[in-house]
Write a structure and sequence with these properties.
This protein is of the alpha+beta class. It has 3 domains: 114 residues, Butyryl-Coa Dehydrogenase, subunit A, domain 1, CATH 1.10.540; 111 residues, Beta Barrel (Butyryl-CoA Dehydrogenase, subunit A, domain 2); 147 residues, Butyryl-CoA Dehydrogenase, subunit A, domain 3, CATH 1.20.140. It is built from 10 helices and 10 strands. Strands 1, 2, 3, 4, 5, 6, 7 and 8 form an 8-stranded mixed beta sheet that branches. Strand 2 and strand 3 form a beta hairpin. It is globular and about 80 Å long. The structure holds flavin-adenine dinucleotide (FAD).
Length: 398
Amino acid sequence: MGHSMGDLDLFNPTPEHRALRQTVRAFAEREVEPQALASDRSEHFNLPLFRKLGELGLLGITVDERFGGAGMDAVAAVIAHEELAAVDPGFTLAYLAHAMLFVNNVFLNASDEQRERYLPDACAGRTVCGMCMSEPGAGTDVLGLATTAERRGDGYVLNGAKMWITNGAVDDQTLGDAFLVYARMKGAPRAQLTSFLVDKGTPGFSLGQRLKDKLGMRASSTAELVFEDCEVSERQRVGPEGGATLHMMRNLEIERVTLAAMSLGIARRSLDVMNRYARERTSFGEPLAHFGQVQRHLAESYAEWMAGRSYTYQTAAQIDLGSAGHRLDSDGVKLFCATMAKNVADRAIQVLGGYGYVGEYVVERLWRDAKLLEIGGGTLEAHHKNMTRELGHVQTLR
Ligand SMILES: Cc1cc2nc3c(=O)[nH]c(=O)nc-3n(C[C@H](O)[C@H](O)[C@H](O)COP(=O)(O)OP(=O)(O)OC[C@H]3O[C@@H](n4cnc5c(N)ncnc54)[C@H](O)[C@@H]3O)c2cc1C
């Protein structure tokens, strides 16, 4: 490939995208990498490091500049997640929960007054935020959620519990700052959800258990959040009553595409590690890369990574953040990339032998982190179900 166009390609479609990638990669290598192993081991969410993402303009990457964002597109969001996840997927998950699940969601679906109240602080990293969809009793069956909202006076009262909330806590005792919470008005039909912005410190809103000892993504905190007669005012409701189901579906698209981007980062790093190791390590007097079985690990990993990468960037380039309409491929990229990254990390461990099995060589952490991407933001089976439904609308593929 020629370099006269400044290396612009599907993965860096404009000079701004290329510059973003360089900035995030340099930051990731300089500041994120050195703490990654220790944060994984201690299950520590690195708040000072998170705040630096605000200084870089990454926390409001898809938000208009008038609310403190960087005004970039879905491809830019994919670049940021890919680059950060190549060094620390756990930290990147906390970034995603804030920047995609909360910030992007509020930017697209909330009123101007709500955007002004929440976004400047969230984009600057002064607050840590998240999104509450899943519950102890309802995950894949998200419309089966049981959290209720009921009119009381001028406002609402919320009751229920949310499970698995990334950024739910910033440490063992402290709630995150603000959350977008999906609930159903008492008596409303199953498909009509209503969402609310709920702040730390609201009476009746508390931290349940902080989920410890996760397999991976340990640099992000995961918590249960509890709502007990939690009163919120009318100005905390996002959009009309019953209107949040569309918000949720729309936001799930960018969530899935950026989760796929995280898988791409994991796969690339795993490939780099195994490629280098296969040249340096000798066995029977030869580099590992001379053995056919090792060559297969390398070649298949590279081809699968490039396939996933092309599919993800192609899909991201078509996403208009303001509208829904890429459900088939946003599920598709996550379905493909999640398992691809897990397999690539697995092969990297295999190529490194015993060294692959210990933390210093990174791939054991990447392998553990990769597994979450087959579950969070939709399980593989949820993607199968959604994609088959979407394919039902297609007569002939073009
Ligand atoms: C580390 C972590 C972070 C997370 N962060 C967040 C967050 O910030 N916000 C949030 O709202 N949620 C979050 N989640 C929740 C996540 O999205 C759910 O775990 C996920 O959607 C699956 O739901 P579940 O765990 O309830 O499993 P279930 O839905 O109970 O599924 C259990 C199994 O049954 C299968 N299954 C269920 N229904 C079907 C079906 N119809 N057909 C075939 N198979 C089926 C599933 O695929 C799965 O294999 C997080 C989860 C984790 C682990």
